[in-house]
Every structure is written in structure tokens, then in C-alpha cells.
Write a structure and sequence with these properties.
Shape of chain A: globular
Radius of gyration of chain B: 15 Å
Largest interface: A-B, 74 and 65 residues
Largest sheet of chain A: 4 strands, mixed
Strand content of chain A: 15-25%
Number of strands of chain B: 5
Number of helices of chain B: 4
Oligomer: heterodimer
Structural class of chain B: alpha/beta
Helix content of chain B: 25-40%
Strand content of chain B: 15-25%
Largest sheet of chain B: 5 strands, mixed
Helix content of chain A: 40-55%
Structural class of chain A: alpha+beta
Shape of chain B: globular
Number of helices of chain A: 16
Chain lengths: 486, 162
């Protein structure tokens, strides 16, 4: 068989693109961001029994299968009008907390973290998790791998397989938890809480104790006021699995709070000719173009947005750090996008604490882990917080439960307009007329994008790596001035 | 031959051609004899960090995946030179680490990671549309690729000539 070499960026189809256009003087006039998008999900779903969708949607994306499964299962509950038994709800949230812990761990240590740990202008080859372990110590790599493995183990215990789970079903879960399994998860949760404390310390030592980094977080190119969205529980505390969607403005005031089935009264989608991805916005304010602030319907749904949209965290360590963050960064809401990494670390800690809360709840080993559907199916909406934003699944069925229509608003799509705008703002802030465009500067543009932890994971399968990204800067005549590829 | 080998098919079988690697390892399964107990065949729809979990504990790994290059002809298959993955070792975004970074991380961590890795890929036409059936060129190349990989692995002595 032939053996060949390829350069992923120049030869592979389907990479992400950031394009920056300069004006006559050499300042940034505009910036665009494009990614390939999956096609035809709605048609694919039509004609299938609705109860298949939690299994199918969990396979849409290799990065956040649990989020799709949970949103789909909740939409199915709603389609059949089922009220879940308390044990079933808690088991789902237990599994979901483990997923969040693992996912945020990946982002902080492998993706966003390297910019801070290794430095935003460190050579590209060092700005990754290998660079992180070289700087922080090899034991950090061991902790990261162990935490991720144990989060998968929780999924394995609950669902029989470590990734791409299929155990959330209409009305609850496919199996319950016995005492032995519970004990094992409790041990994992306790280790997770310790790992959360360790991560808060890493963040404190490396980012917060470095004035240059705090200044970078607070700097104008990364400051970006919009509305902020997130799920909250009955006490307006952050919840990943259930509750109402709350949106607060850049002034910190509540704009709306809605039940999942009401989402279309509050969120609409704008279309642009240069991309297939849509741009959701707040319907009652309207689409005013790519602009932020109180008058524009653009909102963000991110870890930082969730913290901004809530009144606090439901667990003690996370709550203490939440208060510290707002005190350090000048009160609520925080509009500095690089604070997203801090918010993510707070959420990581919350996920571990919540995992422990749930696994030590006496109801968790209860026998009522599923209610059987008895009503005639119609239509239903399920909403969860995916690690990178509010995830909405909406299904319509006929009276036999066969899907007639499906609509999804995925986590990253919420942030599509803010991502485009943040890239432009960061580009305007760091690329200046008369100053050479360097790889380090372009990385600083990319950091604004990376803070969202954008997951086009569904578009990243077809190579033994992940989706490459190309950043191109053009002069006023559209000649390529500089290109950065990864 | 005491080396433990994993043959891993990567992809997503609900994204048209994206499942090519998985279909190929299913064919390989039917081509190799049962007594080769040191060979494990697995399917996965994941990347990045998960490679470490999936490949740990094996001496050799054979990875079969789909690829889409600009000049690629759908159904064409070849072995990918693993050093070619180096440029993307820098990738630190889009949510996952890439394969080369995963390999480097595993080495740095002293994880029992395969010492020998071979990557076989098939050029595909459509890996972005939902669908459970590959496009015709890809579909007809699946058995050919499976046979070719088995022959290649026998040549290397990674599987028996039984």
C-alpha cells in the first residue's frame, strides 16, 4: 500500500477559517469566522421513533455526546408528558456532573490553559498540554488523565459504556445504581473535589498571581458586553441539567426567564449569506447586526454567561470562588471574555461537588429510576447546559411517536455572533497599522475565539487529529499579508 | 508472536462516509482468524484524549480512519506517514488535542502506549451529511481496503499468516 505524508492544514478539506481584512491604513476593517457545518439532521430524524433520538443524537458529536443524549431524553420526556421520579432525575444529573467535570478538565488543561500556563506568545509547539506538564510538573498530567478516566468510569457504571452513552431514555434511566456502584462513584467524586481544589490553586498560582495575565483578562480587546444566558435552579443558582433559562443584560438586570417549551418566544435565528450557521438572538430585542450592548439582541451562552446569569453556585467551594471572581474583576456581570477560563474552573469545581452531593443523596440508589410513558406523544422541548452553551432539542411527533420535525440549537451556535464579534474586536485591539503582524499577535486573536471553547466537534472526525484552523490577514486589496495555520 | 495489537476503526456511521474506518475494521474482523487472540478489534467515534484510554496497554496499534484531502479521490486508500501528523501537534484548540499530541502526552506520562502505530486512511467524499450509507466509491473500496490492510499487516508480521 502507498505511504504518503500530508499537511493537515493545506491539504485537508473542512478546516475552520478566520479571515481578517485590513483597511487603507492597515487597521482592522473586518473579521470573519467560518467553519464547515453538518447537514441534514432534521431530515435524518424524520420518520424515526422519537425514543431513538437520545441514542442517535449522542452520536452527532464525539465531544459532547452526554449533552445531546440528555437534551434529547428531556425532549422525549416532554413529548410523552412524563414527570420523572426523583431518583431518575438525580441519576441523570449525577452522570451529567461527571461528564462536565471531565470535559472542563480537558479544556482547561489541554486547550485554553496552555495560553496562560505556557504564555500567549510561547512558541506554538510548546503551547499545548505537553508544555503544561513540562511547566507545572508531570504529576498534573497524571491527575488530568485520572480525572478524565474516572469520569468515563461513572458513565460506564451507569450506562454500560464509557463514551457515547445510551442510557438516558424517555421517563428516566435504563438502570439504577446499587450500593457497591454508589460507593465507587462516591470515591471518584471525593477525588474530583480534591482535583477541583488543586485546579483552583493552579489557576490562582499561574494566572491570578501574574499581574500581566490579570491585566490581559481586563484589557479592552477581550472585553465584550452582551446579554448572558444560562440555566438556573429554583434559587437562581447555576444548574447544568435542569431548570429555567435565565438571561441577564450587560447591566446585570434580568431580561427574561423562561421554561424550555417557551424558548421560541425568546430566541430567534438570523441568517447571513456567507455562512450556513445561523445566529441566534433575543427575539424581544431583535437582531441589530454584529454589535453588543443593551440595545442588541446578541447573547452569549458560555461558562461565564452561566455565572453572570445566575445569582450564585449551589455548592460551597464553587460559591466561594464565584464571589472571589466577581470581587476581583469588578462586580457582575463580568464582560471580560478571558475570564471564561476562571468561570470554567469554578464550574469544574461545582461539577465535582455536585457529583458528591448527588451520590451521597439517599434517593440515588432508589428503585424508581424510570417512569413508563402512558400518554399520547405530541411535541416536546428539552434544554440542558452543554459545557459550551445552552443546548435545545425540540421534537414534534405523530400520535405513534414517529418524528415529524426536529429542531436543534446547539451550544456553540448560540455563541456564533459573539465569536465573530470577539474575533473582530481582538483583531482590532492587537493588529495596528504600521506594526508587523506576527504569529504571536494572531494567537492573541485566536485566544478570544478559544475562550468560547467552540465545539464544532461534529465536524472534526475525518482525520486522525482534529479540525485545523487557518487565520489569514488580507490588506485593503485582498492580498494575503500573513497566514497562521495549525 | 506475543505482542498485543489493537485494530481501531474511527469514524461516525451516521455521517455518510465518515464511518469508512469502522466499516473497514468490520471487514477485517471477518478476514482474520479467530485464534489470533492477541488482536483486539474496536470501533470508536472519538478523538484526542480518548486515544490514550483506547490504546493504553497495547504494543501495536493499527488505526483506520476516513480522510478528505483537496486532491483526494473518494475510495482511494493509503497508509499515512505518522510523522506527517507533526504539523498539527501544535493544535491546541477546537476542543480536543490531536492524535500527535495525544501520543506525545502519553510518552511524557510514561503511559504503556503502543510502540508501533500504523494509520490507514481512505479518501471520502461526504463526511458532513447525516446518512447511514456511504457514497458508492467509498462503499466499493471498503472490502478492498480491508484485504489490503490484512496483507500489509501479515507482511509486517503483526498478524499470523494463518
Amino acid at each position: 500500500m502507498k505511504r504518503i505524508s500530508i499537511d493537515p492544514v493545506t491539504r485537508l478539506e473542512g478546516h475552520g477559517k478566520i479571515e481578517i481584512f485590513l483597511d487603507d491604513k492597515g487597521d482592522v476593517a473586518n473579521a470573519y469566522f467560518q467553519v464547515p457545518e453538518l447537514r441534514g439532521f432534521e431530515k435524518f430524524a424524520e420518520g424515526r421513533p422519537v425514543e431513538e433520538l437520545p441514542r442517535i443524537t449522542s452520536r452527532i458529536c464525539g465531544v459532547c455526546p452526554e449533552a445531546h443524549m440528555m437534551a434529547a431524553a428531556k425532549a422525549c420526556d416532554a413529548v410523552y408528558g412524563i414527570e420523572l421520579p426523583s431518583t431518575a432525575k438525580k441519576l441523570r444529573e449525577l452522570q451529567y456532573s461527571a461528564f462536565f467535570l471531565g470535559d472542563h478538565t480537558t479544556h482547561f488543561y489541554a486547550l485554553g490553559g496552555p495560553d496562560f500556563v505556557c504564555g500567549p506568545d510561547a512558541p506554538k509547539a510548546e503551547r499545548n498540554i505537553v508544555g503544561v506538564i513540562k511547566k507545572v510538573g508531570v504529576e498534573v498530567g497524571g491527575k488530568v488523565i485520572k480525572t478524565r478516566r474516572e469520569c468515563h468510569e461513572v458513565a460506564q457504571i451507569l450506562g454500560g459504556k464509557p463514551v457515547t452513552p445510551v442510557n438516558a431514555i424517555p421517563g428516566g434511566m435504563s438502570k439504577g445504581l446499587n450500593k457497591e456502584e454508589r460507593d465507587r462513584i462516591e470515591k471518584i467524586a471525593r477525588d474530583g473535589v480534591e482535583f477541583g481544589k488543586f485546579t483552583l490553586k493552579v489557576f490562582e498560582d499561574i494566572v491570578l498571581k501574574n499581574k500581566a495575565y490579570v491585566d490581559l483578562i481586563l484589557s479592552d480587546p477581550y472585553t465584550f458586553p452582551t446579554y448572558y444566558m444560562g440555566l438556573v435552579d429554583a434559587n437562581n443558582k447555576v444548574n447544568f441539567y435542569d431548570g429555567k433559562v435565565r438571561v441577564v443584560g450587560p447591566d446585570g438586570k434580568e431580561h427574561c426567564k423562561y421554561q424550555p417549551h417557551e424558548y421560541r418566544e425568546f430566541v430567534a435565528e438570523h441568517v447571513e449569506p456567507w455562512t450556513y450557521l445561523k445566529f441566534p438572538y433575543l427575539k424581544k430585542i431583535g437582531w441589530k447586526g454584529f454589535t453588543g450592548g443593551l440595545e442588541s439582541g446578541v447573547y452569549q451562552a458560555t461558562p461565564l454567561s452561566r455565572l453572570n446569569a445566575a445569582d450564585g453556585m449551589a455548592t460551597p467551594l464553587a460559591q466561594a470562588e464565584y464571589e472571589k471572581m466577581y470581587k476581583t474583576l469588578g462586580g457582575k456581570p463580568v464582560k471580560h471574555n478571558l475570564a471564561m477560563h476562571w468561570a470554567r474552573v469554578i464550574e469544574l469545581t461545582y461539577a465535582a461537588e455536585r457529583l458528591l452531593q448527588l451520590v451521597t443523596d439517599p434517593e440515588i440508589t432508589g428503585p424508581d429510576y424510570r417512569a413508563l410513558p402512558t400518554k399520547i406523544p405530541t411535541e416536546g422541548v428539552g434544554i440542558v447546559e452543554a459545557p459550551r452553551g445552552t443546548l435545545t432539542h425540540h421534537y414534534w411527533t405523530d400520535e405513534n411517536g414517529i418524528v415529524t420535525k426536529a429542531n436543534l440549537i446547539v451550544g456553540t451556535t448560540n455563541n456564533h455572533a459573539p465569536i465573530c464579534m470577539s474575533i473582530k474586536k481582538a483583531a482590532q485591539g492587537v493588529i495596528k497599522a504600521g506594526k508587523p503582524v506576527t504569529d504571536a499577535l494572531l494567537n492573541m486573536v485566536e485566544m478570544s475565539f478559544r475562550s468560547y471553547d467552540p465545539c464544532y466537534g461534529c465536524a472534526t472526525h475525518s482525520l486522525p487529529g482534529e479540525m485545523p484552523l487557518e487565520v489569514t490577514v488580507y490588506d485593503k486589496d485582498r492580498n494575503v499579508l500573513h497566514k497562521l495555520t495549525r | 508472536m506475543n505482542s498485543k495489537t489493537i485494530i481501531l476503526g474511527l469514524g461516525n456511521t451516521i455521517l455518510t462516509d465518515d464511518g469508512a474506518g469502522i466499516y473497514v475494521v468490520r471487514e477485517i474482523q471477518s478476514l482474520i482468524t479467530n485464534h489470533q487472540s492477541l488482536i483486539t478489534i474496536k470501533e470508536a467515534s472519538v478523538g484526542g484524549f480518548n486515544f490514550i484510554d483506547l490504546l493504553t496497554g497495547y504494543d501495536r496499534a493499527v488505526i483506520v480512519d476516513a480522510i478528505h484531502t483537496k486532491d483526494g479521490k473518494p475510495g482511494e486508500f493509503y497508509e499515512l506517514d505518522i510523522s506527517a501528523l507533526k504539523p498539527s501537534a501544535r493544535l491546541s484548540s477546537l476542543h480536543q488535542i490531536d492524535f500527535a499530541t495525544a501520543v506525545e502526552l502519553a510518552k511524557n506520562m510514561g503511559v504503556a502506549f503502543p510502540k508501533e502505530i500504523a494509520i490507514f486512511v481512505m479518501e471520502v467524499e461526504d463526511e458532513f451529511s447525516f446518512g447511514e450509507k456511504p457514497t458508492p466509491e467509498v462503499e466499493s473500496a471498503i472490502p478492498k481496503m480491508a484485504e489490503s490492510i490484512v496483507a500489509n499487516l501479515k507482511e509486517r508480521g503483526w498478524i499470523d499468516h494463518a
